[in-house]
Amino acid sequence: MVTVENAEEYVELMFDFCMHIGIQKQMEAFKEGFNQVFPMEKMSSFSHKEVQMVLCGNQSPSWNADDIINYTEPKLGYTRDSPGFQRFVRVLCGMSSDERKAFLQFTTGCSTLPPGGLANLHPRLTVVRKVDATDSSYPSVNTCVHYLKLPEYSSEDIMRERLLAATMEKGFHLN
Questions:
Q1: Which of 14, 71, 163, 170 has the fewest other C-beta atoms within 10 Å?
Q2: Angle, vertex CA 47, rays to CA 62 and CA 67, nearest 5
Q3: Which ranges of 4-44 does DSSP label H, i.e. alpha helix?
Q4: Of 18, 56, 93, 144, catalytic
Q5: pTM to 2 decimals?
């Protein structure tokens, strides 16, 4: 029984079990499997930042206008030269690191980009014009296929406001 007298010991034992003893077999299996793919002794050739980049992607996603134009697919009402798509490019370029992470989470289901950035995002981000939408409409997504349905907003400010508001929503009601 846990009592006031042994509560601290209980917490220490539970922590040890949850973080060490209880997952020891799983950690050994992970290490063995990882070692088969990439031997651990070779890891010393890389910094911890390089290993993190390979395993987790870029934690501070960055892009520029050329990246967005070259590695996204405007379709169904948008072209690379259409005013709405050009506004989209400028809005994305003006985002902060946290806003970019939120945008990626909203559109792809992951807040990071793979190594190589947008060039290595597969499937590519597709941006289509949302039918029957107005300035008061919000963008919506099909996350699994990286498909953004974006209204033809009348200004960058409105697009930015609606896009950022949509990225803060949780759940599937904007898909």
A1: 170
A2: 15
A3: 7-19, 24-37
A4: 144
A5: 0.73
